[in-house]
Amino acid sequence: MTTSLYDLSVGTYVRTVGAVESFLEKARAHFVAAGIDPDDLVTHRLFDNMLPMSFQIVSVAHHSIGAIEGLTSGVFGPPNRPQPTDYAGLQAMVADTKAALVALNAADIDAYAGKDVVFQMGDFKMPFKAEGFILSFSLPNFYFHAATAYDLLRMKGAPLGKRDFMRFR
């Protein structure tokens, strides 16, 4: 049995981006009901030397639909998308990311199998084949930022559990 590049990437991204979409909404509803402005969470950090909630969500988009764009162009770099400055903007970014992922064609993605992809940051370049890029670079970063966003919300009191992150329902 083989696993396609589409299944490794898009199939995985859609599920977790959907979970992020869901837990962002569940957290928003909780904070609004508690009289807390969700916009106050956008700049929240777990630690002073970590990037804020907004960057975590931007990175979820960047390491999913942005990774697919990297497969297409052959080059992937740090996020350069505008960062939303409010909670609704973060939610919209996640919804847009999910819609873009769902619209992708499996055969188109599978056609990138074995292709070269380079992570480039300034003069630094790290070469990959498409599968290695997805498995060893994109997915670990994707999950790190999704989990960090979840952790930020949970730490601030959102009633989230593992099922919200794993999206078992």
Percent of residues in helices comes to 55-70%
Order of helices and strands: HHHEHHEEHH
Number of beta strands: 3
Tell me, rounded to a whole number, the average pLDDT. Answer: 95
Radius of gyration: 16 Å
Q: Which structural class is indicated by helix and strand composition?
A: mainly alpha
Beta-strand share of residues: 5-15%
Number of helices: 7
Main β-sheet description = 3 strands, mixed
Largest beta sheet: what is the strand line-up?
A: 1-2-3
Note the gap between the termini.
27 Å
Task: Point out poorly predicted stretches.
Answer: none
Q: What would the principal axes of the Cα set say about the shape?
A: globular
Keywords:
mainly alpha, 3 strands
Structure description:
By secondary structure, the protein is mainly alpha-helical. The protein has helices spanning 5-33, 53-62, 65-73, 87-102, 106-110, 130-155, 162-166; strands spanning 75-76, 116-121, 124-129. The chain is built from 7 helices and 3 strands, in the order H-H-H-E-H-H-E-E-H-H. The protein is globular, with a radius of gyration of 16 Å.
Task: Please describe the topology of this protein.
Layout lengths: L4 H29 L19 H10 L2 H9 L1 E2 L10 H16 L3 H5 L5 E6 L2 E6 H26 L6 H5 L3
Parallel strand pairs: 1-2
Antiparallel strand pairs: 2-3
Helix pairs in contact: 1-4, 1-6, 2-4, 2-6
